[in-house]
Design a protein that fits this description.
Number of domains: 1
Radius of gyration: 14 Å
Mean pLDDT: 90
CATH topology: Collagenase (Catalytic Domain)
Largest sheet: 4 strands, mixed
Shape: globular
Number of helices: 6
CATH architecture: 3-Layer(aba) Sandwich
Structural class: alpha/beta
Length: 141
Protein backbone atom coordinates (compact mmCIF):
# COMPACT_ATOMS: atom_id res chain seq x y z
CA UNK A 1 0.00 0.00 0.00
CA UNK A 2 1.26 3.43 -0.92
CA UNK A 3 -1.10 5.36 1.34
CA UNK A 4 -0.62 5.52 5.08
CA UNK A 5 -3.82 7.01 6.43
CA UNK A 6 -4.44 8.77 9.72
CA UNK A 7 -8.18 9.28 9.80
CA UNK A 8 -9.16 11.59 12.66
CA UNK A 9 -12.83 11.43 11.65
CA UNK A 10 -15.51 8.79 11.18
CA UNK A 11 -15.43 9.19 7.37
CA UNK A 12 -14.93 5.90 5.54
CA UNK A 13 -12.27 7.00 3.04
CA UNK A 14 -12.32 5.36 -0.41
CA UNK A 15 -8.87 3.81 0.01
CA UNK A 16 -9.07 1.46 -2.97
CA UNK A 17 -9.73 4.35 -5.36
CA UNK A 18 -7.09 6.54 -3.70
CA UNK A 19 -4.52 3.74 -3.99
CA UNK A 20 -5.30 3.28 -7.69
CA UNK A 21 -4.74 6.98 -8.34
CA UNK A 22 -1.56 7.06 -6.26
CA UNK A 23 -0.16 4.05 -8.16
CA UNK A 24 -0.89 5.85 -11.42
CA UNK A 25 1.42 8.73 -10.45
CA UNK A 26 4.09 7.53 -8.03
CA UNK A 27 5.81 4.56 -6.42
CA UNK A 28 6.50 6.45 -3.18
CA UNK A 29 4.45 6.30 0.01
CA UNK A 30 2.03 9.10 0.85
CA UNK A 31 0.77 10.11 4.27
CA UNK A 32 -2.93 10.99 4.14
CA UNK A 33 -4.52 12.74 7.09
CA UNK A 34 -8.26 13.34 7.19
CA UNK A 35 -9.20 15.89 9.81
CA UNK A 36 -11.70 18.62 10.72
CA UNK A 37 -11.84 22.36 10.04
CA UNK A 38 -10.37 23.56 13.38
CA UNK A 39 -7.37 21.23 13.02
CA UNK A 40 -6.61 22.13 9.40
CA UNK A 41 -7.01 25.82 10.32
CA UNK A 42 -4.31 25.43 13.00
CA UNK A 43 -2.01 23.71 10.49
CA UNK A 44 -2.72 26.36 7.85
CA UNK A 45 -1.86 29.10 10.35
CA UNK A 46 1.30 27.36 11.58
CA UNK A 47 2.75 26.54 8.17
CA UNK A 48 1.24 29.08 5.79
CA UNK A 49 0.35 32.02 8.10
CA UNK A 50 -3.26 31.81 6.93
CA UNK A 51 -5.72 31.83 9.81
CA UNK A 52 -8.56 30.00 8.08
CA UNK A 53 -9.57 26.45 7.30
CA UNK A 54 -8.94 25.11 3.81
CA UNK A 55 -9.99 22.03 1.89
CA UNK A 56 -6.60 20.40 1.29
CA UNK A 57 -2.95 20.98 2.20
CA UNK A 58 0.13 19.29 0.76
CA UNK A 59 3.56 19.03 2.31
CA UNK A 60 6.12 17.46 -0.03
CA UNK A 61 9.33 15.89 1.26
CA UNK A 62 12.49 16.83 -0.60
CA UNK A 63 14.47 14.27 -2.55
CA UNK A 64 13.56 11.11 -4.41
CA UNK A 65 15.43 8.58 -2.32
CA UNK A 66 14.49 4.93 -1.93
CA UNK A 67 12.17 4.52 1.03
CA UNK A 68 11.51 8.24 1.55
CA UNK A 69 7.79 9.13 1.38
CA UNK A 70 6.58 11.62 -1.20
CA UNK A 71 4.94 13.76 1.47
CA UNK A 72 1.72 14.44 3.33
CA UNK A 73 -1.77 15.36 2.16
CA UNK A 74 -4.25 16.73 4.69
CA UNK A 75 -7.93 16.77 3.73
CA UNK A 76 -10.61 18.62 5.68
CA UNK A 77 -13.70 16.46 6.06
CA UNK A 78 -15.93 19.50 6.65
CA UNK A 79 -15.09 20.78 3.16
CA UNK A 80 -15.61 17.29 1.71
CA UNK A 81 -19.19 17.18 2.98
CA UNK A 82 -19.94 20.83 2.19
CA UNK A 83 -18.63 20.78 -1.39
CA UNK A 84 -20.08 17.39 -2.27
CA UNK A 85 -23.53 18.54 -1.18
CA UNK A 86 -23.18 21.91 -2.92
CA UNK A 87 -21.95 20.39 -6.19
CA UNK A 88 -24.21 17.33 -6.19
CA UNK A 89 -21.72 14.50 -6.03
CA UNK A 90 -20.70 12.04 -3.33
CA UNK A 91 -18.39 12.68 -0.39
CA UNK A 92 -16.16 9.90 -1.71
CA UNK A 93 -15.84 11.67 -5.07
CA UNK A 94 -15.00 14.94 -3.34
CA UNK A 95 -12.38 13.23 -1.18
CA UNK A 96 -10.82 11.70 -4.31
CA UNK A 97 -10.79 15.07 -6.09
CA UNK A 98 -9.04 16.69 -3.14
CA UNK A 99 -6.57 13.81 -2.97
CA UNK A 100 -5.73 14.23 -6.67
CA UNK A 101 -5.24 17.95 -6.18
CA UNK A 102 -3.00 17.40 -3.16
CA UNK A 103 -1.03 14.63 -4.85
CA UNK A 104 -0.31 16.78 -7.89
CA UNK A 105 1.05 19.46 -5.56
CA UNK A 106 3.29 16.82 -3.93
CA UNK A 107 4.56 15.98 -7.40
CA UNK A 108 5.56 19.61 -8.01
CA UNK A 109 2.57 20.95 -9.92
CA UNK A 110 1.36 24.44 -8.96
CA UNK A 111 -1.78 25.87 -10.58
CA UNK A 112 -1.03 29.30 -9.13
CA UNK A 113 2.07 29.79 -11.27
CA UNK A 114 2.09 27.19 -14.07
CA UNK A 115 0.72 27.52 -17.59
CA UNK A 116 -2.18 25.14 -17.07
CA UNK A 117 -0.13 21.95 -16.70
CA UNK A 118 -1.71 21.06 -13.36
CA UNK A 119 -5.19 21.65 -14.70
CA UNK A 120 -4.47 19.44 -17.72
CA UNK A 121 -3.09 16.60 -15.58
CA UNK A 122 -6.01 16.89 -13.19
CA UNK A 123 -8.52 16.75 -16.04
CA UNK A 124 -6.85 13.63 -17.49
CA UNK A 125 -7.09 11.86 -14.13
CA UNK A 126 -10.69 12.98 -13.63
CA UNK A 127 -11.67 11.52 -17.00
CA UNK A 128 -9.70 8.32 -16.46
CA UNK A 129 -11.31 7.70 -13.06
CA UNK A 130 -14.76 9.01 -14.10
CA UNK A 131 -14.96 11.83 -11.55
CA UNK A 132 -16.80 15.19 -11.47
CA UNK A 133 -15.09 18.51 -12.32
CA UNK A 134 -11.85 19.29 -10.54
CA UNK A 135 -11.08 22.09 -8.14
CA UNK A 136 -9.32 24.05 -10.86
CA UNK A 137 -12.09 23.58 -13.40
CA UNK A 138 -14.65 24.72 -10.81
CA UNK A 139 -12.85 28.01 -10.26
CA UNK A 140 -13.60 28.97 -13.87
CA UNK A 141 -17.34 28.26 -13.64
Amino acid sequence: MLINIENQTNFDAPLQELEAIACELTHREIELIITDAPTIQEINLSYRSKDMPTDVLSFPLEGDFEGVPLGSIIICIDFVYEKSELLGHTANEECILLFIHGLLHLLGFDHECDNGEMREKEELLIKKFNLPDSLIVRSYI
